[in-house]
Queue: 2 jobs
Job 1
Amino acid sequence: MAHDAPSGPSGPTKLVILNIGLILSGDLEKPILDGDAIVAENGRITAIGRLKDLDTEGATTTVDANGAAVTPGLIDSHVHPVAGDWTPRQSQLNWIDSFLHGGVTTMISAGEVHYPGRPRDVVGVKALAITAQRTFSAFRPGGVKIHAGAPVIEHEMVEEDFKELAAAGVKLLGEVGLGGVKDGPTARKMVGWARKYGIQSTIHTGGPSIPGSGLIDKDVVLEADTDVVGHINGGHTALPDSQIRCICEGCKRGLELVHNGNERSALYTLRIAREMGDLHRVILGTDAPAGSGVQPLGILRMVSLLSSLGDLPAEQAFCLATGNTARMRALDCGIIEVGRSADFVIMDTAQHSAGKNLLESIQLGDLPGIGMTIIDGIVRTERSRNTPPATRVPVLVKS
């Protein structure tokens, strides 16, 4: 296992991606962009459009997309990291690097709950959160951006603890319900303290997932009023449809669908969100590593599931895995637009798919083939070792 984040270029960089067959923006308002080229300088997008109209002089890296599609880097809104690129939950090394080969360039921690001997006292809870925030800020396996340091709240915590955590750089709460706090009134009070100091919150939804967790039903979810309703389709066991509908209609918070949940409930939630005109509230995660394992292609599988069985256009399904999460989490990635981070995935129809193009193949239920991932304007991986082989593969022309 590598212990150091990859070193970046020492000087200015300019990335040019040309011969793009399709640009998916990640923005529900305009999911497909007109253009065949993208330019990024020093890790940020500076131009999108037709190659003939863009300034490509002085490129330090040139990628020929060879007609393949470019999407924003995928965002996994629900992971449980521990230490480095290792998970004791499955005794597995390099799981983050494998997610990168599945197109995931950004991860959001829902709590470092699998840490062996995880402390439950207030001092320990804060120490673990700050340690995780510091270490994953400094360590990026393959360049993946991991937003970690998400404390699981306990009854003994007071407002000053949340102020201290925020001052130390902690910006997330772990899943409410995985610690001692499982009741609505206490959760609402602590979520309010967190929000006061700029810390976002997520709640466990559904039946218990690990020893120590418990059932969190609609009443607790609605009273707690977290920023994100974590795995509304269960992690793993979902609430009844009637309760899912109550949550969707009873709040305007984020509705998170995860791979390690109930697929039927995910499709049911999607249908309700669309009926309400609230598709922008839906975000995607894996809830991994977990008891069911590590799923490097979990986000791609959720995109394919929701598109093929949920009758959602593939270009919109990608928005749930990119721009929706970016906006909800106030991230500068996830959307292909000038000024945002140059995080991209270059992908195409898998070889021998029944689909005539990338979007049709996904709407038929197939996974795409990934040919390259780019983070901060730097090529991180070429042909994926995990996806099926792509029909068209990008070429690194100059680096």
Job 2
Amino acid sequence: MESFEPVVELDVREDLRLKKEPFDKIMGTVKSLEKGQAFVLHAPFNPVPLHAVLKRKGFTHDAVKIERKHWKVTYIKKEETAK
């Protein structure tokens, strides 16, 4: 069985500082997640529009303001219910 880190972290603060749009990088990271992995995003603000996008993909989130320009958001994919 393959082992993987239970948490994948991505820091987009530098991308945004350089005026680079990090959405594709974020979505690529989300697509690469294995079942059960959490995704931690570091951003200079609370990325509210991203919460809505990932909620539609089945993720819950917990956003914490670390300092003035540093938010840490943890996204966790909800367990899919059997139908």
